[in-house]
Amino acid sequence: MVLVLNGVLQDDCPMDTTSLFMQHPVYRDYAQQLLSIPTKSVGPVGLLYVGQREMAAAAPHDKNINIIGTDDATTCIIVVVRHSGSGAVALAHFDGTGVDEAVCTMVARVQELALGYPEGRIELQLIGGYRDPQSYGEEVFYSIMQSFHKHHLEIDLTQACVGELNTILRGDINCPIIYGVGVNIKTGEIFPATFPERGPDRELRDARNFMGAQTVLDIYDASLGLLRIGPFNYDPLRGADLWLAQTDEFLLQHLSTSPDVEPPHFTHHMRATIKFIQENQFPAITVFRDNRPRYYRRDETTGCWTLILD
Asked: Which GO terms describe its biological process (predicted)?
């Protein structure tokens, strides 16, 4: 009983996006405002990029970060949690795995960063999850709404650009309108975005998902200002050579929940990820020496993340 929709405390959680928009048509207007903003291409300087099954949180005074963002969301949903008083913000890229625990972590991180700011509410924004043929996006939407509805705090849903509101018909195929967003942590502005460069250890981070990780990784230590990857491990991938020998179309059809609408680089990224797994079958040994995370610090000259070497 703690989800607030259009200013009204809810007894029940919406079962799907259709019922949400029928009961609260104001979310159509909010989505239209977001959709009217031109898509920005965000460079690596001052960027904290969050991948699938990852999350991160930061405060406006963080000198290392200007933008938190993610993209390539088709059936996935991007979740932004923000404290209206302090401006502390958390962003996650959810595909339905590990949602309950990650929602609690997101809210906790934002609360920690908002200490000393008694005024303000926890606001929730959802973007992504177009109307796909298998209704995967609806499943992810419902799992997210359920998790926030179970939380003990009152949480205001202020944006829900999901489902039909994030869908456009191209030919006879439903396609997402927005694939990614950025959040300006100084101002709280949220905008459609693409990210040509996605930060360090991309193949390592994608390998974790490919091999079936069941949790959402918190990738930023706000107290230290460090990007933190791992440690984690996975089992060796059998048949990596066989995967790599397949055509792009085969990989697209077998490794995507939405093969008709994936961005052009999807299969290239899949091949790079499989190749990485093939070369690092036991990352606990080859990547995370002594079971320690890989830490990155913002380089003051370039503005990009650089590995902290022992």
From this structure: ubiquitin-dependent protein catabolic process
- Classify domain 3-308 at the CATH topology level: 60s Ribosomal Protein L30; Chain: A; (3.30.1330)
Place of tokens 């680089």: 265
According to DSSP, the residues that pair with 58 across neighbouring strands are: 89
Q: Where are the alpha helices (DSSP H) in 3-154?
A: 17-23, 26-35, 99-113, 136-150
Instruction: Give the C-alpha separation, 296 to 303, whole Å.
Output: 12
Model pTM score: 0.96
CA 4 vs CA 9, 80, 232, 274, 286: distances in Å? 4, 15, 36, 42, 47
Distance (Å, rounded) from C-alpha 198 to C-alpha 41? 12
- pLDDT at 290 (0 to 100): 87
pLDDT at 191 over 60: yes
User: Cα–Cα–Cα angle for 126, 128, 132, nearest 5°?
Assistant: 135
pLDDT tens digits for 142-168? 999 999 999 888 999 999 999 999 999
Residues 181/193, Cβ–Cβ less than 8 Å: yes
